[in-house]
Design a protein that fits this description.
The complex is a heterodimer of chains A (514) and B (367). With 514 residues, chain A is an alpha/beta fold. Chain A contains 17 helices and 22 strands. Helices cover 32% and strands 26% of the residues of chain A. The chains are: A alpha/beta (514), B mainly alpha (367). At the A-B interface, helix 10 and helix 11 of A face helix 1, helix 2, helix 9, helix 10 and helix 15 of B.
Chain lengths: 514, 367
């Protein structure tokens, strides 16, 4: 295996932050176990690891949101007591969270100054100097923000720029970015990287939390890899590769590329004709979607989230009724059928929000594994549930899909996020569906489980299942799909052959340019 | 991670989990009762009596002799029905405050069938009366159920309103239509429709009106348990209560689930009429319940919405209710009202606090 500390890089020039022997325990979980982190002044430092590796905990300790049980932090070589985010900000440390901390109905300028309002004579808000400073910051770092626009009118990428301006406004020298690209289109990601390089060029230091290894290779100078609460490697980006980082992260060799043969496309399974539907707030979210999915192929649906993908998923599975148009499954009209009738026709569904739709966390694992087939043989007769066959099914599925812990009686809510997702995938695939609607099947799941889920999706395809794959992760769409349809503003902006496209083309279709 | 050991001894984790769940379920009620007794002791001391003496009398007067026990069981019987009613609705994610109204309609239906079809033989009339009670309650439950499913109006508001309508309607019927002059009750039900008291078979219960509908209540508790945990309909209702989004995704109709749950909940409340009309008074009397339906909410809360818990909680509240009369000579009987109120407050507060504690225990057990 690997030595516990694979440190072969030169030390950074002048360390900006040095965390030494940081340990943090939650109940009996050691989230951080004697972690050392050196971040040099003026570098982009990637912090990578699977979910639950302890990255976020470490950064929350640095930003003063948690206190470490032991260990110490040095900022610019001086010991620092960071008790709260206010302490961290005073030391020049700022953080952009994965979920933005902005107030949508307020303007950019109001959001930026909130909590550090510049005052005239100690009393009156000094909006003019605030505006000047924001304009200056946005020009210096290429962060295009318009001070008077309302935040709710901004795109996700622009909101992220506001967050960055906000922490720069407070004098941050070190910026911690928690999975900043998770919500961005490829173009927005590129723009963010340009900003990061500019920030670095002006002497700012950046810690970049991610599990996307391509981005690590593209933008970072050095990488710290964490696994199970420990640092398992610190390397210079130029001395490593994606494969090596993945191996360090997971602790074993992983296949980054999905192995799949050509699709053996057969008959049409699903056909949507000019489907319109309203969203949750009664606004039109599907505006004439037509598409077909064939047996034995994976049709990827790419698109920035919120362009109708959720509603598309729901109209196919009967959870939402279309306002017009028709949906056919194997040439039968299913437009008005109930979710149960559609389930019975062999449609499986991995929903995008596993806690809201996919699981009943108060139910046991065994009960969750029959949700959606609980009303018929072999799990229930006319009245009574068949306890024996429910348990037998649970054991066989838990073993076949290696879901841990293997305890059918445990409530599903007590499983880790990755295992909850595997539970849903296992349930839906073990039905041997004719059509699988898989939305964000690997969101929040670690690399090992991603590999596993991908292999199973391909296996279903090769068995002859038609798969509609909705994912915000373009690399996932590109590596799994046979054809890719791009959704933009409730319509299919175009359908392309997966073998003859790239992120750039898809990105342009996703933003309505193509 | 010691997932390996979990793999080798799969059953152990399940058992450990079960034990933990049991502790979690019992801890809150036990602490609530202890807190109530402690606070009650302060009140007793404040009026110059000895808490030990008063509690001693309370205990001896209720569980210390068969007459007292009979009275406790008599008070507990309707609470089992209403407790089960509220618990079943809770399990489906619904808050049925309408047990009071449902039991008035159910009890009136029992009495009406009991005196209207008085020529039928007992083996037909008794089941018919029981069915009438369930149907009457079900009718008063299906209305808010349908309104919720069809229009999304909240069941709490609708059941409260229906309580008033039920009281006014039965009040009207018993005052103007089916009245016995100079009383506020109906005529008596046929003798063969009456349910015998326990004292007729066990003379030790002499003087106590506890009757065989107690066994109906216990039997129904078992049925509710089997329904919720062993049938597919129960599975669906519990799924609905825990996560309606996931239930819908799993092919469960939220609308019909809401209607079913409210109907069954109403039917359970309606069965109170079996005890009060067939077993006790033998006629329908206006305003006989005085809050049994609302007490059902407390019983369900304390009983953690589990049929066994409901039975135990009904016994406790039954004991307190009768115990108030026992100690009335020394301390005001309102003392037991205070005890009941404290139990309920601690249970409500404790469910949150201890829920979090149980969650952290659970997390711990996974490491």
């Amino acid at each position: 295996m690997f030595p516990p500390h694979d440190i072969r890089s030169a030390s950074p020039s002048i360390p900006f932050v040095r965390m030494e022997g940081i340990s943090k325990r939650f109940a009996l979980v050691k989230a951080n176990d004697c972690v050392n982190l050196d971040v040099g002044g003026g570098e982009i430092h990637a912090l990578v690891g699977e979910n639950g590796a302890g990255k976020s905990t470490l950064m929350r300790i640095l930003y003063g949101m948690y206190r470490a049980d032991s260990g110490r932090i040095l900022v610019r070589e001086k010991p620092a007591e960071i008790r709260s985010p206010a302490n961290a900000i005073a030391l020049g440390i700022g953080m952009v969270h994965q979920h933005f901390m902005l107030i949508p109905p307020l303007s950019v300028i109001e959001n930026v100054i909130l909590g550090s309002e510049p005052l005239k004579a100690g009393l009156v808000l000094d909006m003019r100097s605030a505006r000047e400073k924001i304009t200056e910051l946005s020009q210096r770092f290429g962060l295009a923000v318009e001070p008077d626009t309302l935040v709710e009118k901004l795109s996700v990428g622009a909101q992220q720029r506001v967050e960055i301006v906000k922490i720069l406004f407070r004098g941050a020298e070190l910026l911690i970015l928690d999975e900043p690209t998770a919500v961005l289109t490829p173009q927005e990601t590129e723009a963010l990287f340009t900003v990061l390089r500019k920030l670095k060029g002006q002497g700012k230091t950046i810690i970049f939390i991610t599990h996307k290894l391509g981005e690590v290779m593209e933008v970072s100078d050095r990488v710290t890899v964490m696994r199970h609460g420990r640092v398992v490697g610190v390397v210079n980006t130029s001395d490593t590769s994606r494969e090596e980082l993945a191996t360090l992260m997971v602790g074993r060799k992983v296949l980054l590329e999905v192995e799949k043969g050509p699709a053996a496309r057969r008959n049409t399974v699903l056909e949507l004709k000019d489907v319109h539907a309203l969203g949750a707030s009664k606004v039109p979210r599907l505006k004439g979607v037509s598409l077909s999915v064939f047996a034995g192929e994976i049709l990827g649906i790419a698109g920035v989230e919120g362009n109708g993908q959720t509603e598309l998923e729901e109209v196919i599975t009967g959870l939402r009724k279309p306002s017009s148009g028709t949906i056919e499954l194997l040439e039968n009209d299913i437009t008005t059928l109930s979710p149960r009738e559609i389930l019975k026709l062999g449609v499986s569904h991995i929903p995008e929000d596993r806690l809201k739709r996919g699981l009943i966390s108060g139910f046991t694992v065994g009960e969750n594994l029959i949700l959606g087939s609980h009303f018929g043989s072999p799990y229930a007769g006319r009245v009574w549930l068949e306890g024996g066959s429910i348990l037998k099914n649970a054991w066989s599925v838990l073993q076949r899909f290696d879901i841990r812990p293997q305890a059918p009686e445990l409530p599903a809510g007590s499983l880790s996020g990755g295992n909850q997702q595997k539970l849903i995938v296992a349930r839906e695939l073990s039905r041997n569906p004719v059509l699988l609607v898989a939305a964000q099947p690997t969101r929040g799941v670690d690399i090992g489980a991603i590999e596993f889920i991908h292999r199973n999706l391909i296996a279903q395809r090769d068995r002859g299942c038609a798969i509609l794959l909705v994912s915000a992760d373009l690399s996932e769409i590109l590596s799994l799909s046979d054809r890719i349809a791009v959704m933009y503003d409730g319509r299919i902006a175009g359908t392309v052959d997966a073998a003859h496209t790239n992120e750039k083309e898809l990105g342009m279709m996703m933003t309505g340019v193509l | 991670m010691n997932t390996d050991s979990a793999h080798r001894h799969p059953g152990q984790r399940g058992r450990a989990h079960l034990a933990q769940k049991l502790i979690g379920a019992i801890a809150v009620p036990v602490i609530a009762i202890a807190a109530a007794l402690l606070a009650g002791a302060v009140f007793i001391a404040a009026i110059g009596q000895s808490p030990a003496v008063v509690y001693g009398i309370l205990l001896r007067g209720t569980f210390g002799n068969f007459y007292g026990l009979g009275q406790v069981l008599f008070k507990a019987t309707p609470l089992i029905f209403t407790g089960l009613s509220v618990a079943l609705a809770f399990k489906a994610g619904l808050f049925n405050i309408g047990a009071e109204g449902q039991l008035y309609i159910g009890a009136f239906a029992v009495a009406w069938v009991g005196f209207t079809f008085s020529s039928l033989p007992g083996f037909v009339l008794v089941p018919l009366c029981i069915l009438a009670g369930a149907l009457g309650g079900a009718l008063w439950g299906v209305i808010p159920g349908y309104l919720k499913a069809r229009f999304g109006t909240h069941e709490v508001i609708n059941t409260i309103m229906l309580n008033f309508i039920a009281m006014a309607l039965t009040g009207y019927l018993v005052t103007y239509v089916y009245f016995v002059p100079e009383t506020v009750h109906t005529q008596r039900i046929a003798a063969q429709a009456q349910i015998p008291r326990l004292e007729e078979f066990w003379p030790v219960f002499r003087g106590s009106p506890v009757n065989f509908s107690l066994f109906l209540a216990l039997g129904i508790a078992v049925v509710v348990y089997l329904f919720l945990w062993k049938t597919k309909f129960g599975f669906e209702l519990r799924a609905l209560g825990l996560n309606p989004w996931a239930a819908e995704y799993g092919g469960i109709s939220v609308r019909s689930g809401v209607i079913t749950a409210m109907t069954l909940s109403g039917a359970l409340a309606g069965l109170v009429g079996v005890d009060s009309v067939m077993g006790y008074k033998h006629y329908y009397e206006a305003g006989f319940s005085s809050g049994t339906g609302f007490m059902g909410i407390a019983v369900a809360l304390l009983g953690r919405n589990h049929p066994l818990g409901v039975v135990l909680a009904a016994l406790l509240f039954g004991a307190l209710s009768y115990g108030g009369l026992v100690i009335n000579a020394i301390v005001p009987k309102e003392l037991v009202d205070i005890l009941q109120a404290i139990v309920i407050l601690v249970v409500i507060a404790g469910t949150n606090v201890f829920g979090k504690l149980a969650l952290s225990l659970k997390k711990r057990s996974l490491v």
